[in-house]
Design a protein that fits this description.
about 70% helix, two-stranded antiparallel sheet, about 1050 residues, globular, single chain, mainly alpha
Length: about 1050
């Protein structure tokens, strides 16, 4: 049997896919039919030292799956007959033997299996587990100790319950303490021991530790281990042969200290300063020096590895130690440690500068790939380096010790500026980097710095820096100059300092030989412009364009984002100049975004810059804007049916949509003919979700802005633009198209109905029937909302006509009216947008006021039925117990929804104040109390006009809106799209108040009957608050 399994395991590693698949299936069959035999063979293979390591690993991995499926009903994966007890006993016994293996990967797998098994077997079926584990911890064999430590970490991670661990915690910590303080074991084993202590501390962090006995134990443990940790960090790097193990030991110790401090802050507090902080601070200075010797002096071949074979580079130790120091700085004693001692503060500055230097590794990487430098400079790199940690530590100190910190840094910077060694640029650049970090975080900071007697020396450092031969110091000096001038703009206002520094950066942005420096200059220019937005000319704009042009060909990663931000800054200097063809800004904006059209942040920034340009281009100049912007965009589109051939189509279509949305009405002549065919062809063939969404928005904007131009356009087959749009709608309404792709189809339908409804004839009925048909199968709430709004819009104009039409639409299981009303009422609660909600409220109010027999005969879901049961409903039970609702007529549901919406009106809103609703609550006699506790009586014979518009006036407003114009004369009848925001929440509130006042005035008896029989207590409370007594 073993040999058969060996052959199958080997086959699972074969290059031939069919061989692998066949072997995997045979193993699954063995598991189902002969699980005991398979499990026995797998553990035997895993424990046999004569087999190759890879085969043994494979056997244990398959055994892990087998255990999950055949060991215990408690495992979610359990699917078959449980293994025989004797097989389980064999597996438990052999796993402990594997834990003594010299191979770490085998030990790790075995420990994972022991942990999983123990979760069901310990202590009842495996009572000897803990004793065996402690025996291994006391063993003189290193492999046994490492195996035991691996098990402990697994158990602490996902095996022990709190009660189980609490009962043995003192024994575990005692054994770990003995190992950690035993002089005869190697440093690697001690490091593993400390990592296990960290896992134990983390275990306590995940459970609640209650009870005086446990608190006493924790206090004692913190006392003991804080001493062990501080002693570990005090060990000196004297023995070169022991350096690797010592670095790992200190690294794990620093992590354990952080864990202990975060888990038991109160218990750690007495030892925080005297033991832990002192030990970490002292060692950090040593580890920083070691780091510098390896990483800033080019000796990277001295990277250290621990005895377990995992690379533990020396940069990881100061990372952990700096993080702990950062966490300690808010402590007042530690702040005093630095503030009251100039030596300590200068030591902190020296440390920050040392760790903030550009390492030789980064220097080489950035010279080879300048885009990686830009990514790091924009704080978008996923790597967390010592340089980054240094800036975080410096910022934390800045929050608590600003004046002495900055004074010390300035002193250090001035001292470094007088050094002339070949490597002097590193610490000087680091000091500028740290100072800039503070300035970027706190833009208001600068008065102290600007009035400092050292400001002239800082300006001289900048002047010398921008002339440096080193690209990193040169680039940093430019960036620092921009940040400094932005923060000190008030102080520099009376001088020409900022102008000179800006001109220097502007010139270097396009002329410097280094990509890195030119990128830094662009970043600096952005900061200059944010401080002085109105003081620049076309020449400035063109200089930025030249710089972007010099970088764009080689830009990648996050550099295009820098270029787009720079182009937006250039646009804001003069939008009128930016739209000129010779400015190149629009073409560069698109080219930058096209570098990585899948980068959400990049495209978002591009859309924002383009939209700013469109919004700030006057109607008189929009033709010129289109002539500049549209040709390069349309050139990037294709009529090819394969989306892979349209890598930038989504980007382009959204840019075109933005352009049309902000265009004047009517659109510039020829725009539809030049642009619409390309987008329409894509919409008819593409399956890309975003492309179809953006394309739908584009079509809606085209119809909204210039329906006549689209009507008059013809394709090569003679079809009008309207016919092409109907073809697009037919495709988007097809259930074969994903709902997410058709998310904006409702906007297009609404615009078609608004602008061409009377001209469509029978096609209009077919379109609305198709919309109802698609709505019947829709599930995405936002898609449902988009389709519902089509009918909501129409209902505000002709509610009876819409009801009659939908009642005649015959769907498979219902009428169109039933389908639309059910979907509408079921999803109303999740509709979003002020304008959309206002329209829904108005439309539903109109439907209710029809008192239509078709609507009142439609049964819909009412309130949730809460079961009276003592059974605990778990997640799995909930799946088998779907929610149940009462059934009520549709018109009742409408009323309940509008009452609920009424309840969302805040007491301090304008409409509430006008209606006499002040902060308070309904009283028992159905009056409302104001803030002074006085009753507010509402008259039964109120005049709705006093509170706004009557229902007829609301319908009249809806009719005016349906024409696509704002009725406000001050706006000059400027057309506005239906889906565009036209008002705020107050308009919805006004609509609701008028609706309920109308009910109270005109059909009080019916209103009271429905509310009494169908409304919940919460809904009745809302009505009490807003209307007079029914009785």
């Amino acid at each position: 049997m073993d040999q058969q399994v060996v052959d199958l395991l080997n086959a699972t590693q074969a290059a031939d896919r069919e061989v692998r698949t066949s072997a995997e299936q045979q193993l699954r069959n063995l598991q189902e039919i002969e699980g005991d035999y398979l499990a026995t063979s797998l553990i035997n293979i895993g424990a046999t030292t004569s087999y190759p390591i890879t085969l043994r690993q494979s056997a244990l991995l398959i055994l892990k799956l087998t255990i999950a499926r055949t060991w215990s009903l408690q495992f979610e994966e359990f699917v078959g007959t449980a293994l025989e007890p004797k097989v389980k006993a064999l597996i438990r016994r052999e796993l402990f033997q594997i834990l003594r293996s010299p191979e770490r990967k085998l030990r790790s797998l075995a420990a994972n299996l022991v942990s999983k098994i123990s979760s069901t077997d310990f202590p009842d079926e495996w009572p000897e587990l803990f004793d065996d584990l402690m025996s291994m911890l006391r063993s003189p064999e290193t492999q046994s100790i490492h195996g035991a430590l691996s098990i402990l970490k697994e158990l602490l991670d996902d095996g022990f319950t709190f009660e189980q661990f609490a009962s043995v915690a003192s024994q575990v910590f005692e054994a770990l303490y003995n190992l950690a303080t035993l002089s005869s074991i190697d440093l690697g084993t001690k490091a593993n021991t400390i990592d296990t202590v960290r896992a134990a501390l983390n275990f306590f962090n995940q459970v609640q530790t209650e009870g005086e006995s446990m608190n006493a134990f924790v206090s004692q443990a913190v006392d003991i281990w804080s001493t062990v940790f501080s002693n570990n960090l005090a060990l000196a790097y004297t023995d070169e042969a022991r350096k690797a193990g010592l670095v790992l030991l200190k690294h794990n110790t620093a992590k354990a200290i952080q864990q202990m401090d975060s888990t038991f802050p109160s218990e750690t507090k007495p030892y925080l300063v005297s033991r832990l902080f002192s030990a970490v601070w002292a060692d950090l200075r040593n580890s920083a020096a070691l780091y510098a010797s390896v990483y800033t002096n080019g000796n990277s071949d001295e990277d250290l590895s621990d005895p377990e074979g995992e690379a533990r580079y020396i940069k990881m130790l100061p990372l952990e130690e700096m993080e702990f120091i950062r966490q300690c700085i808010p402590n007042h004693q530690i702040q005093a440690f630095f503030k009251t001692s100039a030596d300590n503060m200068h030591s902190f500055i020296d440390l920050s500068v040392t760790m903030g230097q550009v390492s030789v590794e980064d220097e080489d990487d950035w010279k080879e790939d300048a885009n990686a430098f830009v990514t790091e400079e924009l704080s978008l790199s996923p790597k967390y380096t010592c340089r980054t940690a240094s800036s975080d530590l410096f910022l934390e100190m800045n929050d608590h010790a600003l004046e002495p910190l900055i004074d010390a840094l300035q002193t250090r910077m001035i001292s470094l500026a007088s050094t002339s060694s070949a490597e002097a640029w590193r610490p000087l650049e680091a000091s500028l980097f740290l100072m800039e970090t503070v300035l970027v975080q706190d833009r208001s900071y600068g008065k102290q710095l600007g009035r400092s007697p050292t400001i002239d020396q800082l300006l001289q450092i900048i002047s010398n820096g921008v002339s440096s031969a080193n690209v990193f110091l040169r680039g940093r000096s430019y960036v620092f100059s921009g940040t400094l001038c932005r923060n000190l703009k008030d102080i520099f206002a009376a001088s020409d300092i900022s102008e000179k520094l800006f001109n220097s950066a502007l010139q270097a942005a396009s002329t410097d030989s280094s990509f890195i420096v030119r990128a830094c200059c662009l970043l600096a220019i952005q900061r200059f412009l944010s401080a002085y937005p109105r003081r620049h000319s076309k020449a400035t704009q063109m200089s930025i364009v030249e710089s972007v042009n010099s970088l764009i060909a080689d830009s990648a990663d996050e550099t295009p984002s820098l270029l787009v931000d720079s182009l937006e800054a250039a646009i804001k200097i003069s939008p009128d100049q930016a739209i000129l063809p010779d400015s190149q800004i629009i073409a560069l904006l698109f080219t930058s975004a096209a570098k990585d059209a899948s980068n959400i942040q990049l495209t978002s920034d591009t859309f924002e810059a383009f939209e700013y340009l469109a919004e700030n281009t006057s109607a008189a100049h929009f033709q010129r804007f289109c002539e500049t912007a549209i040709p390069p965009l349309v050139a990037g589109l294709s009529t090819a049916p394969n989306d892979d051939e349209l890598p930038n189509a989504t980007l382009i279509v959204n840019l075109l949509s933005i352009l049309v949305n902000h265009a004047p009405t009517p659109l510039p002549s020829g725009l539809v003919e030049f642009v619409f065919p390309k987008v329409a062809n894509i919409l008819l063939v593409s399956d890309d979700n975003q492309l179809l969404q953006y394309g739908s928005e584009f079509v809606a904007h085209i119809i909204q802005k210039d329906a006549e131009q689209l009507r008059n356009w013809r394709d090569i087959q003679g079809k009008s633009g309207v016919e092409v749009v109907l073809s697009i709608l037919a495709r988007l309404l097809n259930p074969a198209v994903e709902e997410s792709s058709a998310m904006c189809v409702g906007e297009v339908i609404s615009e078609i109905v608004d602008k061409y409804g009377r001209d469509l004839g029978e096609l209009l009925g077919q379109l609305l029937s198709a919309t109802a048909q698609r709505l019947a199968s829709a599930s995405n709430p936002m898609f449902v909302q988009n389709l519902i709004l089509v009918y909501a819009h129409m209902v505000t104009i002709d509610p009876q006509g819409v009801v009659n039409f939908l009642a005649d639409v015959d769907l498979e299981a219902s009428t169109g009216l039933e389908s639309v009303v059910r979907a509408w009422l079921a999803n109303f609660d999740v509709f979003k947008g002020f304008q959309e909600i206002r329209l829904n409220v108005l439309a539903l109010a109109n439907l209710y006021m029809l008192h239509n027999q078709f609507i009142e005969s439609i049964p819909v879901e009412g309130d949730l039925i809460v079961e009276d049961t003592n059974v605990i409903i778990t997640r799995s039970r909930a799946k088998n117990r779907p929610y149940k609702f009462t059934t009520i007529p549709a018109h009742v549901k409408i009323l309940k929804l509008l009452i609920k919406e009424l309840g969302t009106i805040p007491s301090d809103s304008n409409i509430a104040s006008r209606a006499g609703i002040l902060p308070g609550a309904a009283t028992s006699d159905n009056t409302v109390t104001n803030g002074d506790g006085e009753d507010i009586e509402w008259e039964d014979d109120f005049n709705p006009a006093e509170f706004g518009m009557t229902m007829s006036e609301l319908q009249k407003l809806a009719r005016s809106e349906s024409n696509g114009y704002d009725s406000d004369e001050d706006n000059g009848d400027e057309p506005i799209g239906y889906f565009q925001e036209k008002g705020g929440d107050e308009e919805t509130n006004e609509t609701l108040i008028n609706f309920f006042h109308t009910l109270c005035a005109n059909e009080r008896e019916r209103f009271e009957e429905i509310s009494q029989n169908y409304c919940s207590q919460a809904e009745k409370d809302i009505l009490k608050r807003w209307r007079p007594t029914f009785v």
